[in-house]
Write a structure and sequence with these properties.
Rossmann fold; 5-stranded parallel sheet; alpha/beta; 9 strands; globular
């Protein structure tokens, strides 16, 4: 399959990602034993989008106080919840994202405990944080980050006495990469057909909710806008009927991210409306894909990982049919801003 190395995916996102379990648990256990007041999930661009699913997961599964914050805004906003008793979690593939590194330094100055997810050790973010968890590679880094964030998040919740299913959750998490690969192969032809049909489409609406809202926001901004120079709008399903619905026409491309958490009915409501108007509705529904060995209880959490991998297939096919490399940039890290 174009740009998908199944063996490498299973090695990195499966074996090597899960091999970090004990290291991650040790970090979380030490912090939990010491005690803390709240958790901050911090990033910029794709990495703050990556944090939004876990903010949702925390809020819907735990009474722990959690805040997802954009790195550069956090520095200037004087957030009164950020103190020496906060735990701050950051992510940067390169480990050099200026805003994220600056936010990590800012949180350290506040006396907060800091955790960083990076691809490589020795990078500025890795050197700044108290605890660094490295994937050891950049390929499939976001897929791996999702695995690590799930271990981190649910270990914190477990230690808080709110997730006794943790051990079973980890067992099923280990089965997820194989399930994702099977789903990706089943989805690939749909992804290719979408790319061919929408090679020249100038604008897409993307709608999602719950733990898929971050993926919705990220795919619109970081992939279609940044990597393909296509205009988009990401719309939360709960807000769709408070403005954006007026822009839907018969030829409007709408991409719906349908997950399996409590917010599914919100996206289904948008789907019912869209079917009456546009002829260009494309739905990515994680529920359509069997994940062998994964219980119904945990599927909703794993929809984040699965959706990410499915949309990745759209990206590689758009790259090919539009002859627009995903690495191509006009401005990002090319000019001063």
């Amino acid at each position: 399959m174009l740009k998908l190395d199944s063996e490498l995916f299973l090695q990195y996102v499966g074996n090597e990602a899960l091999a970090k379990r004990e290291e991650i648990e040790k970090v979380v256990d030490e912090i939990s034993a010491k005690g803390f007041k709240n958790i901050f999930l911090i990033g910029a661009g794709g990495t703050i989008a990556m944090m939004y699913p876990f903010e949702y997961i925390f809020k819907s599964n735990s009474t722990l106080k959690v805040h997802a914050e954009i790195a550069s805004e956090l520095i200037v906003m004087n957030n009164r919840h950020l103190t020496k008793d906060s735990v701050c979690i950051f992510a940067s593939v390169s480990g050099t994202t200026a805003e994220t590194v600056a936010a990590a330094e800012y949180c350290k100055d506040k006396g907060a405990t800091t955790i960083g997810l990076v691809a490589e050790l020795g990078t500025p973010l890795a050197k700044t944080v108290d605890h660094c968890i490295s994937t050891g590679h950049e390929k499939y880094s976001f897929d791996t980050f999702f695995i690590h964030l799930q271990i981190l998040s649910f270990r914190f919740i477990h230690n808080h006495g709110e997730f006794p299913q943790y051990q079973q959750f980890i067992k099923e998490l280990a089965l997820l990469p194989k399930g994702i690969l099977k789903a990706v192969k089943a989805f690939d032809s749909r992804a290719e057909q979408f790319a061919i049909k929408h090679k020249d489409t100038k604008y897409h609406m993307l709608v999602g909710a719950g733990n898929l809202w971050g993926n919705t926001y990220s795919y619109a901004m970081c992939i279609l806008e940044e990597m393909q120079w296509i205009k988009t709008k990401s719309i939360h399903a709960a807000e769709f009927f408070h403005g954006t619905l007026e822009l839907v026409l018969e030829d409007t491309s709408m991409i719906l991210f349908q997950g399996e958490d409590e917010t599914r009915p919100l996206v289904e409501r948008v789907e019912r409306f869209a079917k009456k108007i546009t002829k260009e509705l494309f739905i990515i529904d994680t529920k359509e894909y069997a994940l062998e060995g994964i219980s119904e209880e945990f599927r909703k959490h794993f929809a984040v990982n699965l959706n990410w991998s499915l949309t990745g297939r759209l990206s590689v096919h758009l790259e090919r049919v539009r002859n627009h490399p995903l690495e191509l940039r006009r401005y990002y890290r090319k000019v001063a801003y």
